Amino acid sequence: MIIYGLAILSFSFIIGQWLGELLGKLLGINSNVGGVGFAMIILMLLKEVFERKGWWKPEMILGIDFWNKMYIPVVIAMAASLNVKSAISSGNLAILVGILPVILGFAVFPFLMKTFKQ
Amino acid sequence: MEELLKVIDKNALIVGFLVVGVLAFLSDQFSKKFLKSRIPGSAIAIFLGLVLGYLGGVFTDGSKGISDIEIFKGVGILGGSMFRDFAIVATAMGASFLLVKKSGVLGLVSLVFGILIFFVSGVAIAWVWGYRDAVSLSTIGAGACTYIVGPVTGAALGASSEVIALSIAAGVVKTIAVTIFTPVLAKKIGLESPGSAMAYGGIMGTSSGVAAGLAATDPKLVPYGAVTATFYTGLGCLLCPSLFYYILTFFS
């Protein structure tokens, strides 16, 4: 059943967000901290358990996979509903922050590979 | 016409699906026909989304982009925090602890290195640019990681809409840069084996950029790069608004 997969996703989401709220309170930030990350870890763990038990059925996966594949469209919608007009004044910053670290990443990569081959 | 507007008004979210679908289709066609898929359709669509967000701001003087225009308010629902976080959590199903074990220590080390490199250099550039508060710095640094880590971090810390938009823009620029640079530089940096692809996915992180870049390099490498790249956003979403932000508060 598709709804089972969706329910597992929802369960992970709610528990993860709850943990995020608790961590936020713990750090005294008064906002959700890492709730999405926790939810992802819970979902991965549940997937592991379900796969081991043989409960991870294609029908169920469909319920999660739909939202997995919806993340780009959701990000498109999010981009379209942001205050881009104000951000444009720092447009050069976005380009610098987008490109300079990538160049740094390319420079570091061969060293990382070398270090680990030895 | 009045009846149509009534239907649109009553079913905002459904209209949002339609609008984003049309946008994605046009971007994909543009990518295929004019750019030979060198820049992924999704990256173009996100850029177009930002353009629409800009136009929405120009027309309405609001702060919620295109969704401030009444008939497009459904786009704002679809792109709101609930659906956004839900869809991002769902992407975790593409990864598993078992595969991370297989990709081994190198994958993990590259993930940590990747997030650190991008976050720290993003924060440094933002600092040079004049940002001083830990919330904005973290959000921009997170945006240097991926266009998902940025807004998730920004939303969690309560960053301004402008800074969140900036972090998304930076993340999209990164996706495009990785997509273009990967096939050009692959041989130079020794990106030829599944193992190196896993490390590469961990360093670069942006899954659409890594997948598109590796597809243009060697399609066989795509799943290996994607395995670690999928964890990048999750790890970034966990670290940036918590530990990294916490550390930054001591500096600002």
Automatic annotation (TrEMBL), chain A:
Q: Which Pfam families match?
A: MadL
Q: Which keywords does this Swiss-Prot/TrEMBL entry list?
A: Membrane, Transmembrane, Transmembrane helix
* Bilayer-spanning residue ranges: 26-46, 66-84, 90-112
**Does the keyword Iron-sulfur belong to this entry?**
no
Which NCBIfam families does its entry note?
malonate_madL (TIGR00807)
This protein is called what?
A: Malonate transporter subunit MadL
The organism is Algoriphagus pacificus
Q: What is the lineage of its organism?
A: Bacteria, Pseudomonadati, Bacteroidota, Cytophagia, Cytophagales
Q: Give the encoding gene's name.
A: madL
From TrEMBL, chain B:
List the InterPro entries hit by this protein, alphabetically: Mal/Na_symporter_MadM, Mal/Na_symporter_MadM_N
- Keywords from the named record: Membrane, Transmembrane, Transmembrane helix
Q: Name one Pfam family in it.
A: MadM
**Domain Malonate/sodium symporter MadM subunit N-terminal, first and last residues per copy:** 5-249
- UniProt key word Isomerase: no
> Membrane-spanning residues where?
12-27, 39-59, 71-99, 105-128, 135-157, 163-185, 197-217, 229-248
Q: What is this protein called?
A: Malonate transporter subunit MadM
* Organism, scientific name: Algoriphagus pacificus
